């Protein structure tokens, strides 16, 4: 893969195994979200507080980003309660992958980023000409919609040991499941601390529930965007080349509709009239004047006439 890494490496906690997961970033970047936490509190308490207060995942992910060359151009940004999401998609390829990336909060001041919602009435994706020319920039938390599989997965295999699942894009519950099972075993062995053990089980279940709800909502946001993009319901600024292509297509459809209303004899007469026009390119005149018009069917006649009219619409 062709990546260009930017930004400085952040200091990592020596006590945590490096994972490309929000669990890791929540615990490793606690200084970035102070004073939200008691820095001496237990890890599970920190995750519980983070999830309960609906703090943005974009506030704890690393600042460094990578230019992603293989799939998309930068389409634009939209805002969610999880943070700003960057979107990439190849402009003229309908079935190209759609990629998403949470934009690190501490990187946003250096970027020209819109914080508008997808459905904001005056927001058009690609409204900044500069954005349209840029490659998609991916943070550590990035995903790709694969049109062939119709599913969303991590943008790249980060080999961090965390199983990637479409239903767990932001968080996994493996640690909570492990803790709950181990605490259940202690219920019969630690009667003296039963209330404390039960409280910890309850907290783990709350964390798991919060994670599942966030994962479900986040996946829904991405799927909703993909659906709107497929149905051409995402408002995009029409650039000059888009406008020219659109006008040309409308013109072609209008010409074809008019020609289809004519009889074969009328079409033959129209073609003969057009081939008498001196302003047509010599190569075109030479190409079609030698054709036996009597052997052309109606659709073939329409195709040739349409080509000639598009060369000189005033005809």
Provide key terms for this protein:
single chain; 315 residues; alpha+beta; elongated; disordered N terminus
What does this structure look like?
- The model is unreliable at 1-14 and 31-41 (pLDDT under 50).
- This protein is an alpha+beta fold and 315 residues long.
- It is elongated, with a radius of gyration of 29 Å.
- Strand 2 and strand 3 (83-89) form a beta hairpin.
- The chain contains 9 helices and 7 strands; from the N terminus they run βααβββαβββαααααα.
- Strands 1, 2, 3, 4, 5, 6 and 7 form a 7-stranded antiparallel β-sheet that branches.
Helix and strand arrangement:
Blueprint: E1 3-6, H1 22-28, H2 43-52, E2 65-80, E3 83-89, E4 98-102, H3 129-133, E5 135-138, E6 142-146, E7 151-154, H4 174-187, H5 194-230, H6 240-260, H7 264-274, H8 282-289, H9 298-311
Helix pairs in contact: 2-5, 4-5, 6-9, 7-9
Structure in a nutshell:
40% of the residues lie in helices and 14% in strands.
Largest sheet: 7 strands, antiparallel
Number of helices: 9
Shape: elongated
Percentage of residues in strands: 5-15%
Which stretches are low in confidence, meaning pLDDT under 50 for 5 or more residues running?
A: 1-14, 31-41
Helicity, as a percent range: 40-55%
Quaternary assembly: single chain
H and E string: EHHEEEHEEEHHHHHH
User: Which structural class fits the helix and strand makeup?
Assistant: alpha+beta
Radius of gyration: 29 Å
Q: Separation of termini?
A: 52 Å
Mean pLDDT: 75
Number of strands: 7
């Amino acid at each position: 893969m062709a990546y260009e890494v930017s930004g400085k490496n952040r200091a990592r906690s020596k006590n945590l195994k490096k994972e490309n997961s929000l669990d890791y970033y929540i615990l490793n970047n606690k200084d970035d979200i102070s004073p939200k936490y008691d820095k001496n509190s237990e890890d599970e308490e920190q995750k519980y507080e983070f999830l309960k207060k609906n703090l943005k995942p974009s506030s704890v992910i690393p600042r460094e980003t990578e230019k992603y060359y293989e799939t998309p151009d930068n389409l634009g940004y939209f805002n969610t309660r999880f943070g700003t999401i960057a979107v990439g998609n190849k402009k003229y390829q309908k079935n190209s992958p759609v990629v998403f990336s949470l934009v690190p909060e501490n990187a946003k001041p250096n970027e020209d980023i819109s914080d508008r919602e997808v459905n904001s009435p005056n927001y058009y994706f690609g409204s900044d000409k500069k954005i349209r020319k840029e490659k998609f920039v991916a943070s550590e938390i990035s995903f790709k919609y694969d049109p062939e599989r119709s599913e969303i997965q991590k943008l790249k295999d980060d080999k961090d040991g965390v199983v990637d699942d479409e239903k767990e894009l932001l968080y996994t519950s493996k640690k909570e499941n492990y803790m709950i099972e181990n605490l259940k075993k202690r219920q019969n062995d630690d009667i003296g601390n039963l209330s404390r053990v039960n409280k910890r089980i309850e907290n783990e279940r709350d964390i798991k529930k919060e994670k599942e709800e966030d994962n479900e909502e986040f996946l829904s946001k991405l799927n909703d965007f993909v659906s709107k993009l497929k149905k051409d319901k995402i408002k995009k600024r029409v650039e000059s080349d888009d406008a020219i292509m659109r006008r040309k297509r409308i013109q072609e459809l209008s010409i074809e509709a008019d020609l289809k209303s004519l009889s074969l004899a009328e079409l033959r007469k129209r073609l003969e009239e057009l081939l008498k026009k001196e302003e047509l390119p010599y190569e075109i005149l030479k190409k079609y004047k030698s054709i036996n018009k009597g052997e052309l069917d109606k659709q073939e006649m329409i195709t040739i006439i349409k080509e000639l009219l598009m060369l000189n619409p005033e005809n």
